[in-house]
Amino acid sequence: MRVILIDDEEELVSTLAERLSFRGIDADWVTNGDEALKQLDEASYDIAIVDVKMPGISGIQLKRMMAAKCPEMRFIFVTGHGSEEDFKEGSEEAGGEGFYLVKPVEIEDLVNKFDEILKATGAES
Amino acid sequence: MSRQWSIIGNQGFEFMGGINASISHEIKNVLAIINENAGLLEDFTFMVDRGMPIDPERLKSLAGKIQHQIKRADGIVKNMNRFAHSVDESCKNVELGEILDFVAALSARLIINRGVTLDIDSNAEPVVVMTNPFLLENLIWLCIDFAMDMTGDGKTIGVSCKKTPRGAEIKLSELDGFGSMTAADFPNEREKAFLEALDGEMTICRETGEILLVLPETIKAGR
């Protein structure tokens, strides 16, 4: 399984990527939407974990742009915000309430979410 | 309650809410980083249990990262506390350079998310005025918010203050989007309510791309 982590907090995504690698998940990370879109030209991913609030391209906008480039990719939103409006929009975009997570996120919950997505899409980790 | 104070009251709640959301977002990010670093530390202990060597420098670096995030959180919470107490006194001496830095720190996440950079001239001489700190913080934020709309993503806004013969002046500069603005856009009824409460004046200079906020040395009592 290959995932891409997108969040403007570099220390967060770099550490999470390292921890995911210990669990057999190949994870790349970038810190903004432009880098994420460029990265899609270099590699393909099963799942993108996207911070909702980022400078430049917002998480929701980025998801739409990435999905247009890679229709098979699945998305999980993470956010520090917990507003009802954000939750509703993020859940709808990601395809369900379970794919909108509030920080701090437990890594085992995230890994379980990956498995859930892959089972639903018929892929294997 | 007069219409002016009704506007100020409503805007004050909005300002408090916006800043609280910004601060809570920052704290959530800090907690998330500490959570991942602590998790990584735990992962390392599992590896050691399985006989895998861990470089002590990695552990040292991780401890340093956690300490850095704790300092970051401490700074955020101190600002939050100072902000909460800015309503305590309706009239006190404030140093404008310090209050500009403070509003920028409080709203850091809101500013970052808009892709704008504030260039605050903090080398200026201390500029002290007797004013209502909370109302001034709110009005400064309204000016920054409007200036961000004017400049847009990826731009820098200059912010400075100086003493004047009658009081002080705060200047927001390098605003290059004034061409599309109409006179009714800014300051509107909301900003005018704050200006009246602070005995201040505002000048928009389209040619130079500047907002000038003029404040008296002392506001009238009872504001």
**Pairing-aware structural class of the strands and helices of chain B?**
alpha+beta
**What is the CATH architecture term of chain A?**
3-Layer(aba) Sandwich
Whole-number average pLDDT of chain B? 91
Order of helices and strands of chain A: EHEHEHEHEH
Number of domains of chain B: 2
Biggest chain contact? A-B, 24 and 27 residues
CA-atom Rg of chain A in angstroms: 13 Å
Question: Unreliable stretches of chain A, pLDDT < 50, 5 or more residues?
Answer: none
What is the name of the CATH superfamily of the largest domain in chain B?
A: Histidine kinase-like ATPase, C-terminal domain
- CATH topology of chain A, by name, is Rossmann fold
- Strand order, main sheet of chain A: write it out: 2-1-3-4-5
The shape of chain B, in one word, is elongated
Number of helix segments of chain B? Answer: 6
Q: How many beta-strand elements of chain A?
A: 5
Main structural class of chain A: alpha/beta
Series of H and E elements of chain B: HHEHHEEHEEHEE
Brief overview, please?
The complex is a heterodimer of chains A (125) and B (223). With 125 residues, chain A is of the alpha/beta class. Chain A has helices at residues 10-22, 33-42, 59-69, 84-94, 107-121, and strands at 2-6, 26-30, 47-51, 74-79, 100-102.
Describe what this molecule looks like in 3D:
The complex is a heterodimer of chains A (125) and B (223). Chain A has 125 residues and is α/β, with parallel strands linked by helices. Chain A has one domain (2-121): Response regulator (Rossmann fold, 3-Layer(aba) Sandwich). In chain A, 48% of the residues lie in helices and 19% in strands. A five-stranded parallel sheet of chain A has the order 2-1-3-4-5, with helices on both faces. The model of chain A has no long low-confidence stretch (mean pLDDT 89). Chain B has 223 residues and is α+β, with helices and mostly antiparallel strands. Chain B folds into two domains: 3-86; 91-222, Heat Shock Protein 90 (2-Layer Sandwich). Chain B contains six helices and seven strands; from the N terminus they run ααβααββαββαββ. Chain B has helices spanning 3-49, 56-85, 96-106, 108-113, 133-151, 189-197, and strands at 92-95, 117-120, 128-131, 156-164, 167-173, 201-205, 210-216. A five-stranded mixed sheet of chain B has the order 2-4-5-7-6, with helices on one face. Chain B has a two-stranded antiparallel sheet with strand order 1-3. In chain B, strand 6 (201-205) and strand 7 (210-216) form a beta hairpin. The longest helix of chain B has 47 residues, at 3-49. The mean pLDDT of chain B is 91. The interface between A and B is medium-sized, with 24 and 27 residues.
